[in-house]
Automatic annotation (TrEMBL):
Keyword Acyltransferase appears in the UniProt entry: yes
This protein's name: Hydroxymethylglutaryl-CoA synthase
Species in which this protein is naturally found: Oceanobacillus longus
Keyword Hydrolase assigned: no
EC number in record: 2.3.3.10
Lineage of source species: Bacteria, Bacillati, Bacillota, Bacilli, Bacillales
One Gene Ontology MF term: hydroxymethylglutaryl-CoA synthase activity
Secretion signal span: none
């Protein structure tokens, strides 16, 4: 039985800052951000968007009534969750009007969370072929103003419906994975900003990629020639390229050209969104599927997932016949085109806005946020959400 990604939805908040302007404000040459890091625009979440609403907005565009009825498992991957107890997925479950006969949980392992969710969903569907699983990957990446990680922030979510006989991509069974306790990036529960050892994190990312790639080759006998493209977790778009380059010489000139050209296409969405942590790999996959118009059915795509701390995995999927008919390219083009640029001082003001932590009541201005699903306020330490379509 084929199991895999049946549908993919995406949402980024409607605000962004231009990386050239951020560089100027920080007294840095713009080329460091646009070429050295490889980022053009960075999505900024207004106070009315949090990981719950980003995920719900990503999912609302793909679910039909059959999905809502058949989804019996909601798995929310995030490392910027809003509650240490209640799963962010439970809010999304209500906001989307899903069938109550479902399991809903939240998973965390830095940027690896959504990959763990996908693998868990695959096992669930293998045992329950009729079921559909909603995998949500949603995060807001925050390092802080004027920090070296600042240029690698971002915000957004990817939602995927997983099923048997998927329309988009069937996952293959072989994969290789690795865990090692390293302190390259972490966020203690008392901090809303990540701590990072930047250079070390880059080294670990590359090391993990090399190790899982070598193990994958050993297990399967496959090599670069078997891949049409390899998508990477992209904390910034130069990162995957650094890892890819270390194995490219294993392929022929043709393999190298193909993989480099397709790598570029797989980074286009990430370049204008930034790091969305656990959704980043899947945003890269979406970029490839939507923007490479001549991607052929049956192509094998490699996926490298890395979550600091750290866990890495290399796994693969096969593009399904007629997959393009199920994409939402126009909708996503519109999401990007209708965004509003903010100045650096405006971005800083948004970054510094916080919600009350003393139980007081606040009502937020949801009319200035075009998203369908918003955080409308707080009361008694509870977040209040609204789906503008049905005022749920
Ligand atoms: P930095 O130290 O300020 O930057 O921070 P740099 O000095 O390393 O420069 C970056 C690149 O720009 C270099 O290129 C420079 O040469 C180049 P490279 O040598 O690396 O190819 N450069 C220029 N290029 C053109 N024109 C110029 C120019 N000037 C310099 N004028 C760093 C960079 C990524 C370390 C920092 O932003 C950071 O710490 N970010 C956060 C951590 C991160 O993203 N790590 C990535 C791997 S870990 C991971 O992916 C997991 C993660 O997503 C978290 C999770 O799992 O949850 C982060």
């Amino acid at each position: 039985m084929k199991i895999g990604i049946d549908k993919i939805g995406f949402y980024a908040p409607h605000l962004y800052v231009d990386m050239n302007n951020l560089a100027v404000a920080r007294n840095i040459e713009p080329e460091k951000f646009t070429i050295g890091i490889g980022q053009e625009k960075m999505a900024i979440a207004p106070i009315t968007q949090d990981p719950v609403t980003l995920a719900a907005n990503a999912a609302v565009e793909i679910l039909d009534e059959t999905d809502k009825e058949k989804i019996d498992f909601v798995i929310f991957g995030t490392e910027s969750g809003i509650d240490n107890s209640k799963s962010a997925g439970v809010y999304v479950h209500r906001l989307l009007g899903l069938n109550p006969r479902a399991r809903t949980i939240e998973l965390k392992q830095a940027c690896y969370g959504a990959t763990a969710a996908i693998q868990m969903a695959k096992g669930h569907i293998a045992l329950n072929p009729e079921s559909r699983v909603l995998v949500l990957a949603s995060d807001i990446a925050r390092y802080g103003l004027n920090t070296s990680g600042e240029s690698t922030q971002g915000a957004g979510a990817v939602a995927m419906v997983m099923s048997a006989d998927p329309k988009m991509m069937a996952l293959e069974d072989q994969s290789s994975y690795l865990t090692d306790d390293v302190m390259d990036f972490w966020r203690p529960v008392y901090s809303d900003k990540a701590f990072v050892d930047g250079k070390f994190s880059n080294e670990q990312y590359i090391l993990f990629f090399q190790k899982v790639w070598e193990e994958y080759k050993e297990k399967t006998g496959f090599g670069l020639a078997d891949f049409e493209a390899i998508c990477f977790h992209l904390p910034y778009t130069k990162m995957g390229m650094k890892a890819l380059r270390t194995v490219l010489e294993q392929g022929t000139e043709e393999d190298q050209e193909r993989l480099l050209a397709n790598y570029k296409i797989s980074t286009l969405y990430n370049r204008i969104v930034g790091n969305i942590y656990t959704g980043s790999l899947y945003l890269s996959l979406l970029s490839l599927l939507e923007l490479k118009e001549d991607l052929e059915d049956g192509s094998r795509i490699g996926l490298f997932s890395y979550g600091s701390g750290a866990v890495g995995e290399f796994f693969t999927g096969i593009v399904q016949p007629n997959y393009r008919a199920h994409l939402h390219v126009d909708r996503h083009t519109k999401v990007f085109e209708s965004r509003t640029e903010v100045t650096v001082p405006e971005y800083e003001a948004i970054f510094n806005k916080t919600l009350p932590v003393d139980g007081s009541t606040v009502e937020l201005d949801i009319d200035s946020d075009p998203a369908t699903i918003c955080l409308s306020g707080m009361k008694d330490n509870m977040r209040l959400y609204i789906n503008k379509m049905n005022r749920n």
